[in-house]
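User: quick one, fold this
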Amino acid sequence: MAVSTSTPKIKVAVLGGGVAGMSAAHELAERGFAVDVYERQPVYVGGKARSVDVPFDKLLQLHDVALGTPAGAPAPDAAPRPDLPGEHGFRFFPGFYKHITDTMKRIPYGTNKQGVFDNLVASQRVLLARFGQAPLPALVNFPKTCADLETIVQDLTQANTGLTAADKKLFARNLWQILTSSYERRQQVYERQSWWDFMQTDAERHRDSLPPQAPLRPDALADIHHHLGGAAEAKPNVPFPYEIYCVGGLTRSLVAAQPKLMSVKTGGDILLQLLLLIGDPTAHTDRILNGPTNEVWLNPWLDYLTTLGVRYHHHRYATRLECDPDTRRVTAAFVRPEVGDAEERIEADYYVAAVPVEQMAQVLKNSPDLLKIDATLGFIEKLAAPATKALNWMNGIQFYLNVDVPLAPGHIICLDSPWAVTAISQAQFWPQHPLSGYGNGEVKGLLSVDVSNWFEKGLNHKTAEKCTLPEIVREVWAELKKSLTQANGECLLTDAMCVGCYVDSDIEPGTNRPVPPPIKSPFVADHNTEPLLVNTANSWSLRPESFCGVENLFLASDYVRTNTDLATMEGANEAARRAVNGIIAASGSGAPFCQIWQLHEPDVLAVLRWRDRRRFAKGLPWSDALGDLPTRLLHEANYWWQHLRRPARRPATAVTSTIS
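Assistant:
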C-alpha cells in the first residue's frame, strides 16, 4: 500500500504495543495519520508474541547440578554471540489466518517479495505423543507424497487409540451438526454451550463405565473455592480416549482454549476451518516462522513503522482516560513508566486502547466518566472478573539442547499430559539461524513448550501454579519424556541432552517487574503478570465492538468482537483493523478502509445451512434429516455444481488459503 498524506495532522495515540497496537499503528501510518504508540515493555515489542533475550549463564537447570557445560567467556578470538532466544510461547500461523498474514506481506524483509510473510514455512506433521504408547504422527495437510499416504495407513491400522465404535459415531455426528448448522444457530445457541457439554463428554464417560470427571480445578486454590461458594470434592480425574482424542485434542492444538470453557460456536468454527484446510490440496494447515520471532518478524516490523513516522514510547503503560461527558470525547490519556511514578498526560485527536482485557478493566475503573458516557463498557470489567474464568495461564518454557532432536516436522501434542503440554522442536525450521550462533555456542537444539493447564495436578501431584520454577522445569521435562517414548521403550529425550531451561519471566516476581500490577482472578495469581484471555461459553455478550459511545475512543485487542473469536494474533490484528476503520469514518479522512475477511463456509453444504436457518427461524432444533424432496434435490444439485466448478475456482482458493 502506498503511503497516503491525505490526513497528516490527525494525531492518534495507540495505548499498547502488542500485535493489536502495532497492527493499528501500521494501518494508520500507511494512511497518513500521525501515530504515537505507548508500550509497557522497556525494550521489546509485540506483547505476548515477543521473543526475549536469555543470557546463557542465567539458564535454569533440570537438577541442582548443571547438566551442560558451565557458562563461560568465549574464546579470545571468538566473536561475541547474541543471547539465546526465549519465547512467551511458541508461534504458529494456521492457514485460515488472513488478517495478520496480509499485514506481514507489507513488512519489508531483505529481498523477500512478500516481506516477512515469506519467513513462514509449512509444517508437515503433528505428533500425538502418548503415555505408555509410541507417539502417533498425523498429517496436517492434504496428502501429497507416498510418505503421507503411509502415515495415513499407519494411523488407520496401528493407532491403538482405544476409541470405541460409539465414540467415533458420536464424534462424527457432532462434527456434521456443526458443519450443517446455520450461522444464526451457532451465534445464538452454540455460543451459550461449552465444547465439553456439546461433545457429550460426561455422558460418553458414563457409557464407557468410567469414574466421573473431576471439577475443572479440583482443590487447586482454596480461595477460589471460597469465591465460588465452597470447596469442591476431588474426584477421580483420569482422561479417557474420547476425551483425549475427540474433545481435548482440538483445544490443546489451539492452546488458547479449554474444553470445559470454550463455546461450541468458537470451537466448531475453528475446527471447521482446520478440516477445510486439511481437505484442500493447495493449502497449508499450519505454518511456523523460520527464525526467532523478534528477528524475522517483530524487529523488522518496528523498523518499518519507524520509517512510516510512527513514534514508539517504551516503558509506558496506560493508567486512565480523561473524558468530557458533554462532548462525549476523550480529552487526554495518562501513562506512567512504573507503579508509583508520576503520570504523563497524552493528548491526541483519537485514541486506540490496544491493551489486554485485565489492564483495560483497570483503566475503566480509574476513568469513571467513561462509564457515564457508555455504560456498556462496564461489560469489559465483568469479562475480566473472576466469575467468567476468561483469564488463564498459558506460558512458555524453552529447553536448550546440546544436540538437535527434530522429533517431528511440526507441533507435538502431549495428549496425556496433566499440564496440557504442547511443544515444537525449533532448530529444523531455523536453518538460517543456527542455535550454535547464540549463547556460548553449545546449544544445538531448542524444544519450545507451552503449558496450558497450570491448575491440574501433574505427575508430581502438584499444580504448576503452586510449583517453584525448578519444580515446573522438572515436571514439564518428565511429562515430555513420558510422552516421547518409542515402541521399544526408548525415550527420545535424555537428561544429558539438556543444557539449560528458560521459563517465561512473567511467572515469577523479581525476574520481570509487574507493570501494571496483575488483577485478582481465579486464573490469575500475583506471580503471572500476563495471563491469556481464553474463549468461554456465553462471553460474546460481554465483549465490545471496536467502537463505543465515546466518539474518539476505539478498542483494539483480542477481547473485541471479531470473526476469529479467539485470543490469537489473527484476532488482535482483525480488531485493530476494525478500530482503524472506525477512526477513518469518524475523521472523514477519505482514506481506504482496512479489509476484513469472514471465516470460510463450505459452499457444498450451503443448502443444508440454508435449511437449518429456516428451521431456526421457526424455533426448531437442528435435524440431520434432509426433509422434503425439493430440499434433497436442491442439496444434490448444489453438490454437483460445486464439484463441477471447483477446477475453475482452484487458483482463487490457492490465493486465499495459502497466501492471504
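User: anything notable?
Assistant: The chain has a mean pLDDT of 84.
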